[in-house]
Specification:
Elements: H1 3-6, E1 28-30, E2 44-52, E3 55-62, E4 67-73, E5 83-86, E6 97-106, E7 109-117, E8 122-129, E9 136-137, E10 154-163, E11 168-176, E12 181-189, E13 196-197, E14 216-225, E15 228-238, E16 241-249, E17 257-258, E18 276-284, E19 288-297, E20 300-309
């Protein structure tokens, strides 16, 4: 079969949320006060969020500083000032610009995989931290760099979970072009440093028969709940226009089923996210899903929030 077709809270009352006006589906709704991060900070994009104790912690790509920064929040809506987490390395062949992180916590240690970009390539690096603020790179070299033909010159947007049964780290990553990668691959590691790619990569790619995602699919987050792996991903109709989709798979690698209501989040006409909705990251808080995403209008890119009541995502 053609691979392209194989890819087949306590604060609710205190805030007001926009109703669906053709730009959300499947029970999602946008926060009326969007964007929640941006404005004076300039471009903040491609984030990762943990519900860590009694607060939310967001590691974000901050374009003016070419760095990853940390924001804290008690409600996921109102965020503090950014604190530097991982800066670039001047003169590096692959870490002159640092962005697109994922962070997970195991016990008392935080683990971050991130995108490092140089003049000709983008690769994936790995760092650890005792507190989520002060990070130590675990290698001067990337832990994943482009090798396979489909990966072209860029590996970006890692998303990693730890499987306690297999005791393996599981990564979904995007590969292809540097401006926006093309498709999603999968790899596994016992130590977070040494990765073995899936032999069937890419495991998720664009559907040429679906207008909104016919060009590229990238930058996914995979959440394991019950028997299913749920993938939130970006679909591009062309390189400048993107929306957010949802799919699920039993093993997180094969047999992906796209949500019948896709795209679940799209641009709001005349709004701050008029041109594109990118890079989703969702957390279930026990009562509802909170999904943060990049929104872009012309050249201004900021972070917004969408919500979904209940755990059932409507497949």
């Amino acid at each position: 079969m053609d691979r392209r077709h194989l890819l087949l809270a306590g604060v609710a009352g205190a805030f007001s949320f926009a109703q669906s006006n053709g730009d959300t589906a499947a029970g999602w709704r946008k926060y009326e006060g969007n964007p929640v991060i941006g404005g004076k900070l300039g471009t903040v994009f491609d984030i990762a969020v943990l519900k860590d104790g009694g607060k939310y912690r967001m590691w974000a790509s901050w374009r003016p500083q070419k760095s990853i920064v940390l924001f804290d929040s008690t409600d996921g809506i109102h965020w503090g000032e950014p604190a530097m987490a991982l800066p670039p390395i001047s003169g590096s062949s692959w870490e002159q610009n640092i962005n697109r992180p994922v962070v997970l916590r195991r016990g008392s240690e935080y683990h971050m995989w991130y995108t490092g970009q140089g003049p000709r390539t983008s690769c994936i690096g790995y760092a650890t931290s005792p507190d989520g603020k002060t990070w130590k790179r675990m290698s001067a070299d990337p832990v994943l760099a482009p090798e396979a033909p489909w990966e072209k010159v860029a590996l970006m947007c890692p998303h990693v979970i730890f499987d306690p049964k297999s005791k393996m780290y599981r990564m979904w990553y995007s590969g292809g072009e540097r401006y926006e990668p093309d498709a999603i691959g999968y790899a596994e590691s016992a130590d977070g440093m040494h990765w073995k790619r899936n032999t069937s990569n890419p495991v998720f790619g664009p559907d040429p028969d679906v207008e909104w995602e016919k060009h590229k699919v990238t930058a996914c987050q995979v959440v394991q709940r019950g028997h299913w792996h749920y993938m939130f991903y970006i679909g591009f109709r062309d390189v400048d226009h993107a929306q957010i989709g949802l799919a699920r798979s039993l093993n997180g690698i094969t047999g992906w089923q796209r949500h019948r209501a896709n795209p679940i989040i799209g641009p709001g006409r005349g709004q701050w996210d008029n041109d594109a909705c990118y890079k989703p990251f969702a957390v279930f808080d026990g009562r509802r899903w909170l999904l943060w995403y990049n929104g872009r209008r012309e050249k201004v890119e900021q972070i917004g929030l969408a919500l979904h009541d209940g755990e059932d995502l409507g497949f």
